[in-house]
Every structure is written in structure tokens, then in C-alpha cells.
């Protein structure tokens, strides 16, 4: 449906677009004015045409003063402290923690057996069965 809008990540350098992650897969935007924004609380959000939140990373932390969004070379979209660097960064939120139907190199399926959340992948037979 061309009226639905999604925020996603896909492989760029192959002829057939392969979607690797979608933020709002359960709640597509319905207006051409939907937008992605990093709010003042440090959460990445997708707003609909009337500025209502249709998706949120829920990555708010009070201790971080300056937050940025970065798409890493691995394909991992992260929300992080703007002043952090190096390989062992403490991300406030990362798309690799919320896999869709594509497992990328460097992804880890991790969960807390006591409190959750439980992580899983869903495999589709073809693009029409999703």
C-alpha cells in the first residue's frame, strides 16, 4: 500500500533491496508528513502527521546530556552518548536488540531469562508472506 510509511534499513549495494530491519513494522505511518526525530529525552521516535508517536525506541536516560543517532557500518542503528567512542560503547538503544527476519554479522540473540525481553527471529518463505 503506497499510503503506508515505514522507517527501515536495507542493503544498499545489491540490486534487489533486502530489508534488514524496520522500526514501525506493526504501526506504519499513514501520512506523508510522518517524520523520524530524536526527542529531548533521548528517544528516537516516529511521529505521524498530527505529531502523535507511532513508534519509540524508549531509550531515554537522564544521565546523558548529548545524544546522537548513528548507523554503524555493521547495519546497527544506535542511539548513544555523543561523547562516547571506541568499540565498547554503551549504547542507550540499538536496532540489533530488535531483530526482524534478517540476521546480520555481529548480531547476538540475547535475553534475560528472568525478566525478558525474549528475542527471536521470524523467517518468511517469500516477500508476500510477511
Which descriptors would you attach to this protein?
130 residues, mainly beta, three-stranded antiparallel β-sheet, globular, serine/threonine-protein kinase, Bulb-type_lectin_dom, disulfide bond, kinase
* Total domain units: 1
Structure classification: mainly beta
Secondary-structure arrangement, i.e. CATH architecture: Orthogonal Prism
**Overall pLDDT:** 78
Question: Would you kindly provide a written description of the structure presented here, covering whatever features stand out?
Answer:
- The chain has 130 residues and is an all-beta fold.
- It has one domain (1-130): Agglutinin, subunit A.
- It has no helices and 8 strands.
- The chain has strands spanning 8-10, 19-22, 35-38, 44-47, 53-56, 67-71, 77-81, 93-94.
- The strands form 3 sheets. Strands 3-4-5 form a 3-stranded antiparallel sheet, with no helix packed on it.
- The radius of gyration is 16 Å and the shape is globular.
- The mean pLDDT is 78.
- InterPro entries: Bulb-type_lectin_dom (IPR001480), Bulb-type_lectin_dom_sf (IPR036426).
- It comes from Trifolium medium.
- Residues 1-92 form the Bulb-type lectin domain.
- Keywords: Disulfide bond, Glycoprotein, Kinase, Serine/threonine-protein kinase, Signal, Transferase.
